[in-house]
Specification:
It catalyses: tRNA(Gly) + glycine + ATP = glycyl-tRNA(Gly) + AMP + diphosphate. InterPro entries: aa-tRNA-synt_IIb, aa-tRNA-synth_II, aa-tRNA-synth_II/BPL/LPL, Anticodon-bd, Anticodon-bd_dom_sf, Gly-tRNA_synthase/POLG2, Gly_tRNA_ligase_bac, GlyRS-like_core. GO terms for molecular function: ATP binding; bis(5'-nucleosyl)-tetraphosphatase (asymmetrical) activity; glycine-tRNA ligase activity. Belongs to the class-II aminoacyl-tRNA synthetase family. This protein has 456 residues and is an alpha+beta fold. The protein has 3 domains: 252 residues, Bira Bifunctional Protein, Domain 2 (BirA Bifunctional Protein, domain 2), CATH 3.30.930; 57 residues, no CATH class; 95 residues, Anticodon-binding domain (Rossmann fold, 3-Layer(aba) Sandwich), CATH 3.40.50.800. The relative contact order is 0.12. Helix 2 crosses helix 9 and helix 10 runs parallel beside helix 13. The strands form 7 sheets. The chain has a 7-stranded mixed sheet with strand order 3-9-10-16-13-12-11. Strands 20-19-21-22-23 form a 5-stranded mixed sheet, sandwiched between helices. Strands 5-4-6 form a 3-stranded antiparallel sheet. Bound molecules: glycyl-adenosine-5'-phosphate. The site of glycyl-adenosine-5'-phosphate (GAP) has 18 residues, from strand 10, strand 13, strand 16 and helix 9.
Length: 456
């Protein structure tokens, strides 16, 4: 068990709000549970994490194809995939205060409910977390987590559609299109980043469990005989991505998911868990989905979804390895891994030790004094020079004393601050301050571009 320390979550939540990373959604109206907005720095951080993922898993490989499928899909997709029947969590209601909870999250004995098995063992039921009453529960029921809406003006059942609860199904339904357009050879994968929606019974723990989320998913198509080998390769690839974005290695753990807990489509799943302040919980999943999805879509759609192997002259449905990464949980794990408190120059500070490639702002440029026009003009010219390479990831700040400006940048995780002082006016050199150590070095303005390019 990991130690729970919700203090550090509160610090992150407060920093995210104060500094413009993450805001509660529609806050001026009291917010909306399970929905968050990414502010100016949050959206840069999130885009960096998604771009690194896309670069690593799509652009840097020759066996991957990108996709951006629609969120609304034909409802038959969810019949075939099993989500209409089985994408459900156990729900209990306290008869006294009428609060509703996800049964397994408050200690209900629900291990077998997902499989529709009811046991005869007698269990001690938990107290209601809201009103503390005991023995006032209704029998748990399964609650389908897909959001429903209707298409067009008709309101009958034929108009019902669902917001996708996973991005994966768009990949399966476009499998034949990608085969026909590109004729890829096995093994190959299709990758997608996009929104998914889940009507979670109890959204909680900041952006850990939300109702509107983003996923980065890969369906990697393989021959059945090769699945074990590919499963292992993807297992390593997940760790490589985590290392690249600066998620603390010692906080990541693998959990072999048991038969009872695995999703209906999976023959083997490993959860990558992270030590969050609220306990050790899932960060990502890696599943061997077999040929479950393509086989069911082939049956339901009456379309031939076989792959044709030109060498062996065989037609068959490929098997699938699926690494699935939640974007919000990635952001949270990166923030928690980067958060530090220390003392610098005799002052307490807190800062985000982001990997430079992940940091929303890479460089801040300061004139030493705001009221010296020569310094401000020179600082503006350095800013414009560096902006050519770092557009959107560099800021100019002349507000407040220099110490305060350094602290502000430390808190948002800016790796380098460039200060233009009186020596700059004489010899065209500036100081470059390192966020983590506070050390400063003097560099010529002409060296800065190369220095940052190399450091990034
Ligand atoms: N296609 C497989 C799939 O969707 P999942 O384990 O249900 O599997 C994959 O979800 C990942 O999506 C999770 O590991 C997590 O990172 C993220 N995720 C799922 N539900 C989430 C939620 N309510 N809030 C935030 N992230 C979530």
């Amino acid at each position: 068990m990991t130690e729970k320390n919700n203090d550090s979550l509160e610090k992150i939540v407060s920093l995210c709000k104060r500094r413009g990373f993450i805001y509660p959604s529609s806050e001026i109206y009291g917010g909306l549970a399970g929905a968050f907005d990414f502010g100016p720095l949050g959206v840069e951080l999130k885009n960096n994490l998604k771009n690194i993922w896309w670069q690593m898993f799509v652009h840097d490989r020759e066996d991957m194809y990108g996709l951006d499928a629609s969120i609304l899909m034909n409802s038959k997709v969810w019949e075939a995939s099993g989500h209409l029947a089985g994408f459900a969590d156990p729900l209990v209601e306290c008869q006294k205060c009428h609060s509703k909870f996800r049964a397994d999250q408050i200690g209900f004995p629900v291990e077998n409910m997902k499989k529709g098995v009811s046991g005869s063992t007698v269990f001690i039921l938990p107290r209601c977390p809201n009103c503390n009453s005991v023995d006032d529960w209704n029998a748990p029921t399964m609650f389908n987590m897909m959001f429903q809406t209707t298409i067009g003006a008709e309101k009958d059942s034929s108009a019902t559609v669902y917001l996708r609860p996973e991005t994966a199904q768009g990949i399966f339904t476009d499998f034949k299109n990608v085969l026909d357009s590109f004729h890829p050879k096995l093994p190959f994968g299709i990758a997608q980043i996009g929104k998914a929606f889940r009507n979670e019974i109890s959204p909680r723990d900041f952006v850990f469990r939300v109702r509107e989320l983003e996923q980065m998913e890969i369906e990697y198509f393989v021959r059945e005989a090769d699945w074990v080998q590919h499963f292992e390769t993807w297992r390593q690839a997940v760790h490589e991505y985590l290392a690249l974005i600066g998620v603390a290695k010692e906080k990541v753990h693998e959990l072999e998911v048991s038969d009872e807990e695995r999703a209906h489509y999976s023959k083997r799943t490993i959860d990558f868990e992270f030590d969050y302040p609220f306990g050790r919980k899932e960060l990502y999943g890696l599943a061997y989905r077999t040929d479950y999805d393509l086989t069911h879509h082939q049956e339901k759609s009456n379309q031939d979804l076989n792959y044709y192997d030109e060498e062996t002259k065989e037609h068959f449905i490929p098997h699938v390895i699926e690494p699935s990464f939640g974007v919000e949980r990635t952001v949270l794990a990166v923030l928690l891994s980067a958060y530090r408190e220390d003392e610098l120059g005799g002052e307490k500070r807190n800062y985000l030790a982001f990997e430079p490639r992940v940091a929303p702002i890479k460089v801040a440029v300061f004139p030493l004094l705001k009221n010296k026009p020569d310094l401000v003009t020179k600082a503006r010219s350095v800013f414009s020079l560096l902006k050519k390479d770092l557009a959107g990831q560099i800021i100019f700040d002349d507000n407040g004393n220099i110490g305060k400006r350094y602290r502000r940048q430390d808190e948002i995780g800016t790796p380098w601050c460039v200060t233009i002082d009186f020596d700059t006016l004489d010899n065209d050199t500036v100081t470059v301050r390192d966020r983590d150590t506070g050390e400063q070095r003097r560099l010529a303005i002409s060296e800065l571009g190369t220095y940052f390019r190399q450091s990034l």
